[in-house]
# Entry
Amino acid sequence: MRVIIQDDYQKMSLWAANYIAEKINAHKEDRPFVLGLPTGSSPIGVYQELIKMNKAGKVSFANVVTFNMDEYVGLPHEHDQSYWYFMHDNFFDHLVDMKAENINILDGMTDDPEGECKRYEEKIASYGGIDLFMGGIGVDGHLAFNEPFTSLTSRTGVRDLTTDTRIVNSRFFGNDPEKVPSQALSVGIGTVTDAKEVLVLISGHNKARAMAAVVEGNVSQKWTCSALQMHNAAIIACDEAACGELMVDTYKYFLDIERKERI
Ligand code: GLP
# Structure
């Protein structure tokens, strides 16, 4: 696993955006570049940098197909907290050459959730899998909506949200956890780790415990993001604040080995 430590959120975002743009630009195959994407506050800076690069002609999304990680059950597209709305509002609507038909987001309003999740997995497979899956994590280490004790081999499916996650996400729902949907459709940990590369963003003091668990802890379903340790091309891009619970030696090791990546 690589851990790229930057001074702050802005530099973490710039580094990750540059990395993604380089991967898209280096993709010379006929088939599209397949990019997995998250929502949340962690990726907003990356989206802003990618939008700038796209408008400046430095990266094109014309040959990019995207698959989002997750979606709340029961929120229609036009609900401003649906992940469909978030992705269009924060990213897709600002790109000059993203094709609507290349955007894939699980349908949280479907009356056949199991079928929807099965079709999602099949569609990912039809493109030859995901080239690069970007993600964020929750304070309890959840990746997508794979809460603690979700199987590390899980596939796309319906997930119950923990009370803790509903409390954390209630900041977007008038601070009322009851207004946060109790279920979501989510890719599985196995779906994420099947990607050729995984890039996870970890920012802020409130993620420091999860960061230490992913980097230094055991591979465990208690911290579902720890499955990244078993991936042969996983990168964590983080800021200094997220490193607060790492051992000094761990922190120094990654600063040293990745010193060329420091912005
Ligand atoms: C939600 C999403 C996750 C996301 C997490 C962290 O629970 N399902 O995919 O990583 O929030 O969000 P934030 O980046 O806002 O801390």
Observations:
- Helices lie at 9-26, 44-55, 83-90, 113-126, 163-169, 189-193, 208-216, 248-257.
- The longest strand covers residues 197-202.
